[in-house]
Design goal:
9-stranded mixed β-sheet, alpha/beta, Rossmann fold
Length: 311
């Protein structure tokens, strides 16, 4: 996981920089947890977590403003600890001079936002959860097909990138080719995104590397997507019996999340991109409660039952 700094945070969320320096903005943020130092403003620092971002809302600010100048400065010097990445004041509340002095003393960024405290806390936590989540790099092509995140996997040379290119030509969006970085957003959701060095690039054997943005425009790309389906491409084997009814159920573990998997045999003459589109539409239909395989089996059972009734 790459280092994430205060400057990275300020580039995503709008703040007024009350105090900052190049060194202060380069401080690393190591946790998505945020502390609202209300008890600390009353002098209780026994369980203070200095490595967290410190967020002042109305309650914390009110505690702070009740103190006199010198006492306020002494408390704030403890909040602006050497390990603290940044201190943020929400609701566009007044920033006293003692707070600015403490920020300068520790060289810790002091930021201000007009956003309500709870909303700002949620924005920061959500963004940091995303950026600080452990990443796993896997092989494959990640596409957004009909709004479903589809990870196409298979052995080298089976045609993953070529299939991805055809899907782009058919109006779907590419997220990543060759390498996909995945991370667990929550218990049921895994997010995939491209490594920065490979963003918007697609490799086609015999052609080389192409820039999807240049050839197809921004509409052919997506920054990230929740991976909801894995399509595994396999070399067709004449000696192998394949699932023809779709009753087989497979899954793959991605970053600790179980994702449904479909296995598609590949051979000359099969239009893999159309098959994948059909598989995705069928997957969406099953999610909506329409299972063609179950309907067929029900019809077959009814037919057998009718033919089994004696004359």
């Amino acid at each position: 996981m790459a280092m994430f700094t205060v400057k990275d945070l300020t580039s995503r969320i709008k703040f007024d920089e009350i105090y900052s320096s190049e060194k202060a903005l380069a401080r690393e943020i190591t946790t998505a947890d945020i502390t609202r130092p209300g008890l600390e403003m009353s002098g209780y620092f026994d369980f203070f977590s200095p490595e967290r971002i410190q967020l002042f809302g109305m309650k914390e600010w009110s505690y702070m403003m009740k103190e006199t100048g010198d006492e306020r400065y002494d408390l704030l010097k403890k909040v602006f600890a050497p390990e603290t990445p940044a201190v943020i004041v929400a609701r566009d509340l007044e920033v006293p001079q003692e707070m600015i002095d403490a920020a300068r003393h520790r060289d810790v960024a002091l930021l201000q936002s007009k956003e309500p405290t709870s909303r700002l806390s949620g924005q920061i936590s959500s963004y940091l959860d995303e950026k600080l989540a452990p990443r796993t790099s896997i092989h494959g092509v990640l596409m957004d097909i009909y709004g479903i995140g589809v990870l196409i996997q298979g052995a080298s040379g089976v045609g993953k990138s070529e299939t991805g290119l055809e899907l782009i030509r058919r109006g779907h969006r590419m997220v990543a080719d060759d390498r996909v970085e995945v991370y667990k957003k929550d218990e049921f959701t895994v997010i995939g995104e491209p490594p920065e060095i490979l963003k918007a690039l697609l490799e086609i054997r015999g052609v080389g590397i192409i820039d999807v943005m240049d050839l197809f425009g921004a509409g052919a790309l997506k920054d990230n997507v929740a991976v909801e389906l894995v399509v595994s491409l396999e070399e067709y084997d004449n000696n192998r019996a394949y699932d023809r009814l779709g009753t087989g159920e497979y899954s793959l573990d991605l970053a600790g999340v179980t994702v449904p998997e479909i296995r598609i045999p590949v051979k000359i003459g099969r239009n893999v991109s159309v098959i994948i589109e059909s598989a995705v539409m069928n997957f969406r239909a099953k999610q909506a409660g329409h299972d063609a395989t179950a309907d067929f089996e029900s019809r077959l059972t009814n037919l057998i039952d009718r033919n089994s009734v004696p004359d």
